[in-house]
Amino acid sequence: MRFSLAGMSAIGVLVVSIAVAVPMRAQNLPATPHTPDLLGIYPGMPMNPARAQLQQRSSKYQVVSHTVAENGFGLTIPDPTDQDHVDVYLTMAPNDPAVWMIRRTQGFGPGRPMAQNALLTALRQKYGKETLTANRGGGGLYLYWIFDQSGKLLPTADQGLTGCSGNTFINNIVSGPGHGNTILDRCYASFYAVTAMLNPGNAELLIAYTVELVNMPYAVKAATITMDANKAAAEKAKQNELNKANQNKPTF
Prior knowledge:
It contains 5 helices and 9 strands; from the N terminus they run H-E-E-E-E-E-H-E-E-H-H-E-E-H. It has one domain (47-233). With 252 residues, it is of the alpha+beta class. Strand 8 (192-200) and strand 9 (205-215) form a beta hairpin. The model is unreliable at 1-24 (pLDDT under 50).
């Protein structure tokens, strides 16, 4: 199940699941650092510990699996004055299922507002000083904490990375990464980041915010393995069908 809040801009993503005719052996991706994390969940964390970690946030509401196409799970705490939703996305077979992106969204009613400064203070206490910012006017304020692959926060980074988003890669985790676009190639190569997207009601109070943690190079490696395995399985199924067809000889 996907969750959206009024006032927040969202990108609709259609995901097509690829059926594979033959079993695929699980593969292990390279180890990743345990920090940065979002709510104790980090990219590269195995599925079961990540799911257990998320469930610790609520004894009342249960973690629910996404559709097969989205391949992950989420938790919604539907307080009308403080709606809180977390989504965790997983790598696809033949990779062992592991986290590649975590996203949290909170929306606030009039009974329990949150100040923009309170959110920024909490983020900076956890992650440090942001690496990049992008003010998109009516589209909201975006802040980026960019990390290298060892998990070290970078003080500076290519401003072009403000065009990257893990949300747009949800379908690619199944079908494999695309190439040929300069911005995409930069995202795929180096976008390991926490992104905070603020939807302010005015200069001081927030209507809602979203914080996303994604390790794009890790996700690209996983997606490439999935893509190659699906191609190999499809080619094998095609060859098997051709072999069967060649044996189906008529009698004259």
